[in-house]
Sequence to fold (352 residues):
Amino acid sequence: MSIIGFDIGTFAAKATFLTTKGKGKNQQVVLDGLGMSQMPKGVMEQWEDQPIPARTAMSAAMRSLVKLCKLSKGRYAALSLSGDTMIIKKISMPVTTQKELKQSLAMEAEQYIPYPINDVNLDGHILSTDDRYGQMSVLLVAARKEVVNNYIQAVTLTKILKPAVIDVDALALYNAFDYVYPNSKENVILVDIGAAFIHITVLHEGLPHTIKEESIGGQRMTDEIEDVFGVQTDQAEAIKLGSVGSPDPRELAEIYERIASNWQAAIERAIDSVKSEVQDYSPSRILLAGGCANIMGLADQFQNYFSLRTELFNPLKYVKINHKKYDPAYIDYIGPQMAVSFGLALRKQELK
Ligand SMILES: Nc1ncnc2c1ncn2[C@@H]1O[C@H](COP(=O)(O)OP(=O)(O)OP(=O)(O)O)[C@@H](O)[C@H]1O
Ligand SMILES: [Mg+2]
Fold:
C-alpha cells in the first residue's frame, strides 16, 4: 500500500498511513504513520467562494503532514469530500452489473441532481438487489467536477503526492467500520462529529442505508463558550477541552446540553428516515467518531437518550502498532478522530 489517507476537515487535517507485513493468512496491517495539524480558521468553509486559499491550505497541510510524520513511503493521496460539495442519495433503479452501473447512473441521476449532469462526477454503490422486481437500490454519490478538480489540484500542488482516490467522509467512515467488522450484518449507527458537521451513516444489516450530514459541529460549542463567557477563541477551545476551568460550570453544562440535544435530534431524524423505509428497523448500537467523540460524557448521554449501547469507534485498535513510536494512551485518545483518514488509507488506487 502506498496510499496516505488525508481527512482535511474544517478544524484539523488528519493523515493515516498503513502498510502490510507478512503474506497470506499471516498478513497484518501495520500503522506506519499518523498525524494531525490544525487548519487555518474559516478556510475550508469557504471552498465555493474562495477555492484558491482552500486549495493552498490543503496542499500545505498535506506537505507538512508528510514531512512531520515521515510518510515518505506514501506517494498517493486519498481524500474525501463532505458538506454541501456533494450529494448522497439512495435511489432505486433497474438492475445492472457494477460495470454497467456508471453508464446507467448518468440517466437515472439526472432527476436527483440540481446541476447539469455533465458538470458532476457520479459514483454508485449497489446496496441490494431485488430480483423479483428487477430493481436494485444504489447509493448515488454526486460531486461537482469543479470541486473534485480542486481537490485533485491541491494534491498535485504538493509536488510530492499524486491523487489516488476522492471519496466521501461518510463512506470512508463506513470503510473503516467494514475493516474492523468485516461482513457485519449489524444495524449500526456510525456518527462522526467534527468541528463543522455531524455525519451519520445508518447501516441496515451491515450496509449503508442512509447518510445524513448536518452543519452542527463542535465549533458551535466553542462559539457559544466565546459568546457566553466573553473569552477569545483559544480560551474557549481550552475550556471546551477541559484543560482550563470554566468560569461557570453550570452555564458550561447548559451549553453542552444544548449542542448535544441538537446532535441527538439529527441522529433521531436519520434513524426515523430508515424506519420509514425498513419495517421493524431496530438499531443495535452507536459508534462515535470525530474529534467531538472525546467530549466527556457524550457517549453516556447518547446511550441514555437512545437506550442504545454507545461506544467510541477507534479503528487504530485493530492494526499492529509499534508502541515505542506511539503511546497506547495517545492512540486511545486520537483513534476516533482518525477514523475517516483510516478508512481512506485502506482505499485502493482509483485515479490514474
Ligand atoms: N477532548 C475533546 N473534547 C471536546 N472537543 C474536542 C476534543 N477533542 C477534539 N475536540 C473538538 O473536535 C473538533 C475537531 O474534530 P475533527 O478533527 O473530527 O473535526 P474536522 O474533521 O476538522 O471537522 P469537520 O469534519 O466538521 O469538517 C473541534 O471542534 C475540537 O474542539
Ligand atoms: Mg471531519
Residues 7, 9, 169, 194, 290, 340 surround magnesium ion (ligand 2) (CB under 6 Å). The mean pLDDT is 92.
